[in-house]
Design brief:
The protein has 253 residues and is α+β, with helices and mostly antiparallel strands. It has six helices and eight strands; from the N terminus they run βββαβββααααββα. The strands form three sheets. Strands 1-2-3 form a three-stranded antiparallel sheet.
């Protein structure tokens, strides 16, 4: 949710007593001296923290957002990764502002702190040409001052984009690599399927071999454990002959 665009983030004030202390330097702020107030979380709650004008400005900087987690304190607009933004610090807290919001908030402070040189702001030398131009525009830097600063601090060059022919080649190589990876995955799947099939066939063959009886000619070979004993189980013909012999003996008697 966007915050009130008219909300004041950086307060310019005149000390009503000599009791306040500059959060940047630890020095006492004398009665009647100009001071900058910024709200910050301190002592378990949010309260106004005060600093002297020049130390406050010297603690400010410009930078590129390293992620998309921060937002402009004045408008609530989220920063995208790589956006140029303004940072004010107080009591260890960081107040983030867009370049436009920062110019609006700092204008009264800069008008009062004549001894501070705007172009000495930390991080300004690291801004790329288009972001530096935005800073100059919002902070009303004259053309002569811009030219002098850019001559002394040439802006970092933007990373050149590859020419169209190279882009097409890169895209073609990327597509080729993706296709090769897909083919490799298919080959691996086929090899795995074939290996599993061979293992199943080998297991089935082994099971079939284990259940077969060994044969000599057309007759199955009976092992010792299954062969009949001549003592305990005589052949059926021998038993009948012996019974007839006993019957003849009884008749003769």
């Amino acid at each position: 949710m966007a915050e009130d665009a008219g909300k004041v983030i950086v307060h310019l004030d005149v000390a009503k007593s000599g009791r306040s202390t500059c959060r940047a330097t630890g020095e006492k702020i004398e009665k009647g001296e100009h001071r900058v107030g910024v709200e910050a979380y301190t002592g378990g709650h949010i309260s106004m923290t005060w600093q002297k004008l020049v130390p406050f400005l010297e603690g400010c900087s410009v930078e590129y957002s390293k992620s998309s987690t921060g937002a402009d304190k004045k408008t609530g607009q989220k920063f995208a990764k790589g956006d140029a933004r303004f940072v004010a610090t107080t009591k260890g807290a960081r107040i983030l502002l867009s370049l436009k919001s920062a110019s609006e908030e700092l204008q009264p402070v800069l008008e009062e702190a004549k001894e501070f040189k705007l172009l000495s702001m930390k991080g300004l030398e690291n801004l790329k040409e288009h972001d530096r131009a935005e800073f100059f525009k919002h902070f009303s830097v004259s053309a002569a001052e811009q030219n002098a600063y850019n001559k002394e601090h040439p802006p970092p060059a933007d990373q050149p984009s590859p020419p169209p022919a190279k882009k097409r080649k890169m895209a073609k190589n990327k597509a080729k690599a993706a296709k090769e990876d897909e083919e490799d995955e298919e080959d691996d799947a086929e090899a795995k399927e074939q290996e599993e099939q061979e293992e199943e066939e080998e297991a089935a063959e082994h099971a079939e071999t284990a259940t077969e009886q060994p044969k000599i000619g057309n007759k199955a070979v009976v092992g010792p454990s299954s062969s009949p004993s001549s003592d305990s189980n005589p052949p059926a013909g021998a038993a009948d002959s012996k019974s007839k012999s006993k019957s003849k003996k009884r008749a003769a008697k």
